[in-house]
Amino acid sequence: SQELEQSPQSLIVQEGKNLTINCTSSKTLYGLYWYKQKYGEGLIFLMMLQKGGEEKSHEKITAKLDEKKQQSSLHITASQPSHAGIYLCGAGPTSGTYKYIFGTGTRLKVLA
Amino acid sequence: EPEVTQTPSHQVTQMGQEVILRCVPISNHLYFYWYRQILGQKVEFLVSFYNNEISEKSEIFDDQFSVERPDGSNFTLKIRSTKLEDSAMYFCASRGSEAFFGQGTRLTVV
Fold it and tell me: Is residue B8 reached through a cis peptide bond, with omega within 30 degrees of 0 on the bond before it?
């Protein structure tokens, strides 16, 4: 079955610094989602990528899906305390299953 | 922007009680899902529902759980006799060309 692995598991950066979070799939991705979550709260949709090589941006967050569609990265430029939270990648469904799966999450802390 | 709505946002229940979590999916979507996230842990798949029946379920989704689409608009998750370990955030999702997740119901079993 498909697995999503995120790295790093946690990240502490100084405000103003850039950072990248990675999401690697054990199988080809057919739709990769990025979400942000505050601890114990709901999922905030950030972006969805479908095509190999696709890149999307929203404010200071850019997400890319590699050409082989097995890895995605989320890049935050000039981080701010408001970027702090847990970033989750999600994917699916692949053939033989209806379900979406999620990565383990990356916990981001931004120091002011 | 279409949205999946879940109610209530927070429910507290006594152990052993039945709970029903409600979701209103996006109207023209055909696939519906429930997920669970125990605090601090991964978002886990529970069940998918298509054409008025369960299409796939995980090992978590045992006989204590059931899903229903009672009136063509709501999609519900019932937990028959809640246990302490059922305390979690429960997310509903619906899918057309892409999936949309609701904001979740936090269930606390005391």
Answer: yes
Which is nearest to B102 in space by CA: B53, B51, B19, B37?
Answer: B37
Q: Work out the minimum CA distance from B39 to partner chain A, whole angstroms.
A: 6
Name the amino acid, one letter, at A44: I
Burial A70-85 (b: 16+ CB within 10 A, else e): bbbbbbbeebeeebbb
Per the CB < 8 A criterion, the answer to whether B91 and B77 are in contact is no
pLDDT 10s digits, B83-109: 999 999 999 999 988 889 999 999 999
Residue pair A20/A87 in contact (Cβ under 8 Å)? The answer is no
Answer whether A98 sits within 8 Å of B42, measured CB to CB: no
Q: How far is the alpha carbon of A43 from chain B, nearest alpha carbon, in Å?
A: 6
Size of interface A-B (CB pairs under 8 A): 53
Among all chains, which residue has been given the structure tokens 């109207």? B27
Q: What is the mean pLDDT of residues A24-47?
A: 90
Residue A69 pLDDT level (bands cut at 50, 70, 90): confident
